[in-house]
UniProtKB/TrEMBL annotation:
Protein's organism: Actinokineospora xionganensis
Alphabetized InterPro entries for the sequence: AAA+_ATPase, ABC_AA/LPS_Transport, ABC_transporter-like_ATP-bd, ABC_transptr_urea_ATP-bd_UrtD, BCA_ABC_TP_C, P-loop_NTPase
Record domain ABC transporter: where: 6-242
Protein name, per record: Urea ABC transporter ATP-binding protein UrtD
Cited CDD domains: ABC_Mj1267_LivG_branched (cd03219)
Amino acid sequence: MNADYLELSDVRVTFDGFVAVDGVTMTVPRGDLRFLIGPNGAGKTTLVDAITGLAPATGSALFGRTELLGRKVHRIVRLGIGRTFQTATVFENLTVLQNLDIAAGAGRGPLTLLRRRSSVPAEVEEALETVGLVDVRDKPAGVLPHGQKQWLEIGMLIVQNARVLLLDEPVAGMSAQERADTGELLRRIGAERTVVVVEHDMDFMRCFADSVTVLHAGKVLSEGTVAQVQADPRVQEVYLGTAAEVGA
Ligand SMILES: Nc1ncnc2c1ncn2[C@@H]1O[C@H](COP(=O)(O)OP(=O)(O)OP(=O)(O)O)[C@@H](O)[C@H]1O
């Protein structure tokens, strides 16, 4: 039985009396590439913060049978929940390979980490291939184009054995080709993992989402396939200014 799913029930986050996430209930099974969309301020990033331990929340966020809410950030990471931020957080002066190696060694002690490795660990090789960075493995991460930095960050989550990936606007600022490549990458990694993509790019969502959850004012407004969500009059209303874009 597949226990790699994310099940949120009545998740709530309040900042000084302001309710940013207002009772969100949603389930994301493994292999379902879920897009989380909604207008600015809808609570998307705060919901991801709640799942990853960065925002105090009530309710329940289960990964399989394990409750995530109330745990410390590093424990949640160790349970296999990984996230990216809008700005890639890679070590710019280290090579692609070194970045992946460090991520893979997150469970190793500092002395072992300092010791030079005689060969590239299998999981690092595999991640390099998965994210398509084999050819640039010896380049410093700082010189990579924006798209490749995002892929490196995803690779770092993969070598940490992340089973759930929460990606915050992964294609923002990318070229059309980088977007298409990223979509294919998400499909590859999403087949075996639980992936939630926070996104504003509607074209990208239409091309790659298996399912969509629309947040509005901290609540789930609509959920379903791309076609179902686009046809939902409540979604069209919320996106009125950009309705043509959503409904196109
Ligand atoms: N630390 C905080 N303290 C107070 N209010 C916050 C905090 N973090 C977020 N908020 C508020 O919570 C609401 C939801 O913000 P959030 O960033 O989650 O929205 P979002 O859907 O991710 O928006 P965007 O698409 O613009 O990134 C906003 O009104 C925001 O101002």
